Every structure is written in C-alpha cells, then in structure tokens.
Amino acid sequence: MQEAATRVLILEDDYGLRTSLRLFLEQEGYAVGEADDAEIALELDAVEPFDVMLVDLMLGGIDGFTFIRSVRPRTTAPIIVISARDGSKDVVAALEAGADDYVRKPFDVAEVRARIKAALRRPDYPLVSSAGGYTPIGGIVLDSTDGPLIFDPAAATLRRGTEDLHLTSTEFKLLLALTAGPGRVMTRENLVSQMWPEGHHGDVRVVDVHVSRLRNKVDTGAGGVISTVRGLGYRLDPR
Predict the structure, then answer these.
(1) pTM beyond 0.85, yes or no
(2) Which long-range contacts (CB under 8 A, 24 or more apart) does 24-33 make?
(3) Is 19 helix (H, G, I), strand (E, B) or coil?
(4) 3-class DSSP assignment, residue 147
C-alpha cells in the first residue's frame, strides 16, 4: 500500500510566490494545500490536518500571528514562518505564538525544502544516557513529585499522569537534546545544532523562546526540571 504524501499548507497572500512554492513542493512529492486567507486555512486544516505549515505573517484580515495562536492548540504540526518581517521582535513574537522556525524573504525554495525536512524529521536515537551509562529508550521520568511526568522518546510522547502533553516537533527535539545529558549544562549553540542539524541562520537566543514554551508544559508551580545556567545555557534536572 502506497504511503500517503506529506501534506503541506501554504498560507500566503502573494499569488506568484504561493504558486511557485506549490509547484516546487508538488514536484518534490508533497501534497499541497494553499490559502491566501487565514480563516480559509483554518477551515482546510479542520477538514484534513496538515503535516507542516508555511505561514506568512502579513495577511489581509487575520494576520499570521493570530493564525498561529489559533491553530497551535489543536496541532503539533511544525509551523514555519515565511516573512519579509525580519526584525528580532517579529521572530520572537512568531516563535512565542507557536511557530517552530522562521525563514526570511526573499529565500531560495531549496532552503524551504530543507527546513521542511528538518522540521518533520524525528531524531532516531536508539539510546539515551542515564546515571548508570546508556540504557534502551523507554519512559524517562522527568518529575516524580507531581504526576509523574514521563517522556517517551521512542513514541514521541510526554505524559503527566494520564494527561498527554502535546509537543511540537521543535519542542520534542529540544527535550530530546536535554534528556541526552541530564544534569549537564547544554549551551544554546549545542541545542541549536541538535534542533536544526541542517543549520540555523539567526540568533541562537531563539532557543530561549522554545525553552520558555517547553517549560510551560513540563514545569509546575512547585518547581521546574529545566534550570537556567546564567551565561551558559540550560540543564535538565529530573526530580
């Protein structure tokens, strides 16, 4: 039985750019849905969810930021912003809204293809480190004081008790990188290299935004499992 093609949404109000992207991605074997309006895009995704989304920020009506905030609670699909707005505040605002990556216009379509492949790729790590060396992947207990909070890399799941905590592709890669070295400081540069193995062109402090989003899911009011090491980076401290 033939595997279904990966579904890509292009939300872009520039007809020429949207068409060029669609034709290119279809040649690459993707099934492409397109919209020039955020409301239409939300309706399309509600009917048949997309596997990855390319979203412009400057749209008529509902803007890209609002679209991302609206769709993120119901999907873990990677969201890649494609925008001419390249200020650091715009990048941070898009990531805080729920985007996973940011491509600045003008861009080479080959770069978009690489970003899509990187966003969809789930790292294949057969082993994870532990206090006693390396052990087969299974449920990793991050917090035994409230839940417990268990991360299963093989199944790409995060659960607190019986509740599923949905991870985006980028959040999964970030948590996987942190769990590979519990108790060890991970620099922003190291985390970026594992989250975007094909390369990331931008400020490494975008990691801070993704860590903040991940903390909202894994940390509780009683304390957190992700510690900030000032001037260096972050450390996972299972409890």
Answers:
(1) no
(2) 24/109, 24/113, 25/113, 25/116, 28/113, 29/5, 30/5, 30/6, 30/116, 31/4, 31/5, 31/6, 31/7, 32/7, 32/8, 33/7, 33/8, 33/9
(3) helix
(4) coil
